[in-house]
Amino acid sequence: MLGGTVTLDRTTAIDELLPTTLREDFPYLDQELNGHPLAYLDSGATAQRPIAVLDAERAYLEHSNAAVHRGASTLVGTSTSAFEEARETVAGFVGAGPREIVWTENATDAINMVALGMADAAAGLGGPEADVFRLGADDEIVVTEAEHHADLIPWQRLAAKTGATLRWIPVHDDGTWSIDDAASVIGPRTRLVAFGHVSNVTGFVAPAAEVVELAHRHGALVLLDACQSVPHRPTDFAALGVDFAAFSAHKMLGPTGIGVLYGREHLLDALPPARTGGSTITTVTMESASFLPSPQRFEAGTQPVSQAVALAEAVRYLDTLGMEQVHAHESALAELLVDETARIPGIRLIGPAAGVERAALASVDVPGVHAHDVGQFLDSQGIAVRVGHHCAQPLHRRLGLRATTRASAYVYTTTDEIHRFAAALAEVRRFFGVDA
């Protein structure tokens, strides 16, 4: 694992931002794809794991595996300590306290837990402390037109269950939106605002702190989809002031099968648990049950212990690199992606224009060639990307598209891989016989 960081400015060569020796930590990257060295440009979908993360989970399973929070044996104590220390590590990474971090299956599950808890509150569960979550016909839920389905469908269903109205902040022709757009929708009837910190399609970085201030001014709660921000830039939920947030381990060098729900402590303690059962309760009778405070009230059943340990190791890996350095590296790659893509004739780049901040991802449309065909051509050149609507059909529909091809970078991405992507993309129209 790499040690130490260096102070850098934006004029530093991109490949000096993170040493090339870092790639030795990722055995997955040392392979060929269709006879070419692999250029993995699909980290926005799932990131690869360094050896340290793989070893941490394996070591836990080999030497410490036991049922956490169950029984009083030495082995259970060791396992429980590892489990809760992982929670503390992840909490510190995002500016939270340990009781504000709930383990979930993934970020989608985390968002659903809030939506389902609010639906239960509206149905009268949770007691007086759950009143803050109760919605009715006079209330509004606000999302954006750019949301991932995971941050849209749960709110559609919550609105249907409670009679609340679902409204959305419209996007511009480039898929972005502004605080002024948000202010035109968020108002006195708004009870919840849910939005993505960074768009997984356009790379747009939302004005999160300003939206939080606006929503709170109207007495609304805020949930932040942080799947594309926590892995890539310093993120402090307490400093942003959000009430809830969700992110996934597998997008930040960690394992699949575990995500994180962040919530302000007093809100989590008041939110009815969406799932109930073992490990969540204080007292159970044949007529009723009382629940533990957060986070245990939400973690019913067998917990994802080895995954939590591995996620904590991923956090330590990123901390060693330094999130400011990770962000600088990716900001430089984002500029290169935009510059290289924008100069290719016949290619439509989705999202913020050159010179505007964006994440290190680029979704493109090649008129006359379906995104799936674009992706297969790139695949034949050893370049792995994502194709489709990226779980954001309403956004693609607003942009007049059915699908796009997305290249997304991470800590291990090099300039050579960006150049290879651009060079191959420039050949797509000729290959398919489409005039430029």
Describe this structure in words.
GO terms for molecular function: cysteine desulfurase activity; pyridoxal phosphate binding. With 436 residues, the protein is α/β, with parallel strands linked by helices. Helices cover 36% and strands 15% of the residues. The strands form 5 sheets. It has a 7-stranded mixed beta sheet with strand order 4-10-9-8-7-5-6, with helices on both faces. Strands 13-14-17-16 form a 4-stranded antiparallel beta sheet, with helices on one face. A two-stranded antiparallel sheet has the order 1-2. β1 (32-33) and β2 form a beta hairpin. α3 crosses α10 and α4 packs parallel to α5. The longest helix is centred in the N-terminal third of the chain and has 20 residues, at 74-93.
Radius of gyration, CA atoms, in whole angstroms: 22 Å
Strand order of the largest sheet: 4-10-9-8-7-5-6
Number of strands: 17
Shape: globular
Structural class: alpha/beta
Largest sheet: 7 strands, mixed
- The fold-level CATH name of the largest domain is Aspartate Aminotransferase, domain 2
- Averaging pLDDT over every residue, what do you get? 94
Low-confidence stretches: 1-12
Looking at CATH, the homologous superfamily of the largest domain is Type I PLP-dependent aspartate aminotransferase-like (Major domain)
- The percent range for strand residues is 15-25%
